[in-house]
Amino acid sequence: NDFETRHIVENLQTLNDVLKHDSVEEILMFGVSESGLEYESCEAEWRDDVDVTCFSDGIGWFLDNFRDPSQAYNEGNATEGDRFEFYKSTGTGSEGDSKRKFDVIIIYNLMEQNGFFDIESISASSFQSFLNGLSDNGVLALALHGSIRHVVNLLDVTGFSSIQVYQENHSKVKVPSRNYVIAFKNFDSRSEWYQNAAEIEIVLHYSITDEQPNGHGLNYFDARTMVSYQTPHRTTQDDFCVWDPSECEDYVGFDPMIRNLPTSVLKVAKSSVGENAGRGLFASMMIPQGTGIGLNEQVQSFHLPPSSTDIVEMMMYEEDHINETDYDSFTTFFYGYGYAISHVMGGTLYFVDSGRQLFANHGCNGTDNYGPLYKYSETTVDLNSIPEGFFSTLRPFNPVIERHLRQFMCSDQDVTSRNIEEGEEIFTNYLEYSGGNLDDWKEDVLSLRGQCTGESVGDITGYEIERQ
């Protein structure tokens, strides 16, 4: 809400709702007939502090100004028909005010019919123009009937970082439902998509203006509605699995071929790592190679989402009146026992296992015996480079994972990498729990190296030593 907001809108109803947001300063509306009620309504004075400009031209103006620089077009030798067809495939170019980027672009009628926005004929270069025309944190919103496959594939190819799809079954349209596609230019914007209900209510409270052009508030949207959009519909997942079945084999339940033992086969005792080590996790029976332990419990872990992480860190490090030690027990629990994930929800979040698994220690020098069998250890990895493929990557659009986020982030269906004898300590590779960005990687590798050489201790041990 800090930056100037400009919108492209193709429907007066959408225009009405857009104008309810305080942050809006300028709106460009396309495809408005030069005569009739629609044009008169568009040109009406909606709000004193918002510039609304209406165009009878189609969206070709936008493609004209934000085309890919590699495209070329000789405008002087083209007829209007040629120009229209060219817009459909590439767009043309000119300079000027158009280089001011838009924060939101709304395409309200993307239908399966002849015309510019025919789903099957729209090209990747059109979406490239939309991407070029968005500000760094810009969002493209599409409402369409029919299959989303072609549009989603084009958004993916074009370079949008994240794509969300939801269905609306109670909007006032002449069809039973619509698919809505939200495409983010910046991956970090995903953290706003996943705000909880309380956060959304606060945003609505402060962002919806009191000077309404047509009534107060949003008639068809509240926090509960937004939360319902965060999980894609099952039909969206089923359609996606028809396109690419290989993406649907994981994260839908647990592999029945993996033997899964309850966490009662584990016991907690002082670690065998060294004198300054804290608690460790030991096998109370012989556990065969390839066995999982408490896989079904991992999705029940404690969760600190990105927005909560930001609030905690702001209170600790930016608020002068707050004593950092007041939060030591809370932050030590999450940072010491938890693991960071920064490549899924657009910001850094933390998970802490809710069972005994949280006491598993790091296996120094590649001595881990539970989890993925990596060829890397804290002593062999490069501080300045994360090994390729070390962290799973999230495709811009994958409703299977979106519907099973907890399992994707918390349960990799880890198994024992060899037989573990009764009384033997269980070790994992903590590199697996690094945040996923280079700064976190460096900090975590250096910390593990220090702990493995005895030059430093972990967060939990350090916290307990300070309070002895």
Distance between the termini: 47 Å
Number of strands: 16
Count of alpha/pi helices:
16
* Spatial order of strands in the largest sheet: 3-2-1-4-5-7-6
Shape, please? elongated
| Biggest sheet overview | 7 strands, mixed
Structural class: alpha/beta
Query: What Rg do the Cα atoms give?
Result: 27 Å
Query: What fraction strand?
Result: 15-25%
Overview of this protein structure:
- With 468 residues, the chain is α/β, with parallel strands linked by helices.
- The chain has helices spanning 12-18, 37-43, 60-65, 80-89, 124-133, 149-158, 190-193, 197-207, 223-229, 234-243, 306-317, 328-337, 399-403, 405-410, 438-453, 459-466; strands spanning 5-9, 24-29, 51-54, 102-110, 134-144, 162-168, 178-184, 259-261, 266-270, 279-283, 291-293, 302-304, 339-341, 349-352, 361-362, 427-428.
- The strands form five sheets. Strands 3-2-1-4-5-7-6 form a seven-stranded mixed beta sheet, with helices on both faces. Strands 12-14-13 form a three-stranded antiparallel beta sheet.
Keywords:
single chain; 468 residues; alpha/beta; seven-stranded mixed β-sheet; 16 helices; 30% helix; disordered N terminus
